[in-house]
Amino acid sequence: MTPPDPRGPLAPAERIICALDLPALAEALRLVEALGSSVRWFKIGMELFTREGPRAVEEIRRRGAGVFLDLKYHDIPATAERAVASAGALGVSLLTVHALGGAAMLEACARGRDGCLAPPAVLAVTVLTSLDQAALAAVGVTRTLEDQVLASAELARRAGLDGVVASPREVAALRGRLGKEALIVTPGVRLGGGSQDDHARAETPQRAIADGADLLVVGRPIRDAADPAAAARAFAEAAAQGLRA
Description:
This protein is 45% helix and 16% strand. By secondary structure, it is of the alpha/beta class.
């Protein structure tokens, strides 16, 4: 079994990325096994990668799933370019960089991608879903939150990146600005009535997909569920409802 193509047509179940936000590979693999065929994508973030390194990527890929490496590279252009090339060599399908790294860094990341035998989709993180307008102002950003997201997305597009990561609240505006070709990956999705955890700008999967999101990142609602596979299927059904909207 091969991972789905993030740029191709995606069935509802192929739109769910389960975040493996766990401290050890053994725990992550237990979750992967519990999910079975319910999830085709897994996010490996800073916590798991810092402890387990490339082995985490290798084990997920060995099971035929796609890997979203979410390390949010943000460094000088030469370093970021080499990091993207290294991630591509691991065989990840998607990876993140910070749009706030600036145009030169984003262009370097595009070059790092283009040198890969199997180029990953490089996504620019616009504004973290944990931030609200007050948090942006506290770090000196004077634009409105939506304007900052759109400005970051435009910077990423001009640099030649494949798409963006943003909260579901900005998806409709992003799709209108970026057109149908850009990938939009959306964390901070929650089923109606559930906790938003530390996402300041959460929304339902139905709304995110209806507004134009391609892929939805889901962590705690699947990871902490009594039946993770059933929880994943619930998010896939919500995505299907969004496609029909």
